[in-house]
Design brief:
Layout: E1 3-7, E2 13-18, H1 21-24, H2 30-43, H3 103-119, E3 123-126, H4 136-146, E4 151-155, H5 160-166, E5 172-176, H6 182-187, E6 190-194, H7 195-205
Parallel strand pairs: 1-3, 3-6, 4-5, 4-6
Antiparallel strand pairs: 1-2
Length: 206
């Protein structure tokens, strides 16, 4: 089992914690991690883009000039794609970009992402994370104590004071154990997670 240090909000080491290898020590499956990221980004797309083809553009019903004898190339409509104001060739239409990963694939991808953070020493475990008021400056002070800049902060339970204190920091995102995903874990340089959140994650994914 991997052993990591546990810190308090002052940035001092207060304990050691053994991580469950079935969650934080699995063999990293890069293909599934890639698929999970692509799936999440694709599922977030609205897919509402649209343009008109030559059959949908207004006008162009009359042949602009006769077929022969003008010296021009033959033309059948002023709404062909080569004309200004004409239709778009292979115009994009509304579509659904989403695709699905199987449950086992999603779980293994998440475990792989968590394991990669442990392997790269990019995980910081806090004994607890509590704020008595909503104060961005206090939360930034905690990050400075931990020497962390760009981080995903995972909380074990709902904590509005922490979430609201962190939301004005552009390089930080807070999440709960039931909302973590592969994309966010990989996007941020450091994974900051409370002991309670680690216990919940191990209970759910072990």
């Amino acid at each position: 089992m991997a052993t990591v240090s546990v810190y308090n909000i002052e940035g001092k080491e207060v304990d050691k914690l053994e991580l469950n290898d079935s969650v934080f020590g699995v063999e990293i499956n890069e293909h599934l991690v890639h698929m999970a990221v692509v799936s999440q980004l694709a599922n977030n797309r609205q897919g509402t883009q649209s343009a008109k083809t030559r059959s949908e553009v207004r006008g162009g019903g009359r042949k602009p000039w006769r077929q022969k004898g003008t010296g021009h190339a033959r033309q059948g409509s002023t709404r062909s794609p080569q004309w200004t104001g004409g239709g778009v060739v292979f115009a994009p239409k509304p579509r659904d970009y989403s695709f699905k990963l199987n449950k086992k694939e999603r779980r293994l991808a998440l475990k792989s992402a968590l394991s990669s953070r442990v392997a790269e020493n990019k995980i910081v475990v806090l004994d607890e994370l509590q704020l008595d008021e909503i104060k961005t400056k206090k939360f930034q002070g905690i990050l400075d104590n931990l020497k962390v800049k760009k981080a995903l902060v995972v909380l074990g339970e709902k904590n509005d004071n922490v979430a609201l204190s962190a939301r004005n920091i552009p390089t930080v995102k807070t999440a709960y154990t039931n909302t973590i995903n592969v994309y966010d874990i990989l996007k941020y340089d450091t994974l900051v997670v409370t002991k309670a959140a680690v216990a919940t994650i191990e209970e759910v994914y072990a």
